DUF2516 family protein (Pseudonocardia oceani), 97 residues
Amino acid sequence: MDNYILWGIGLLAIPVGGFAFVHALMQRADAFTAADRLTKPAWLGITGASVLILVVFYGGLGSSGSLFWLAALVASLVYIVDVRPAIVGVQGGGPHW
């Protein structure tokens, strides 16, 4: 049962990393510096490398490269949770409730 859970987490991590990379790719470069974050090329490198690592070490926490996989997932989540809201806020977007 645990293997299925780890497999599912590993499967869901790849689209999360892909979303972070595509979002970083579609943003203006000046928004990153205006939001007081790393530059756009830096975040493209971080999220791109994260996607690559998530795909290569697909087995998730049960694989031989689990430390790399976990670091890649954390990097993608940091972008989504911290950088993305700051960039959206700088560009005039925000919650449209």
The radius of gyration is 15 Å. The helical segments are 2-26, 29-34, 40-56, 66-90. The longest helix spans residues 2-26.
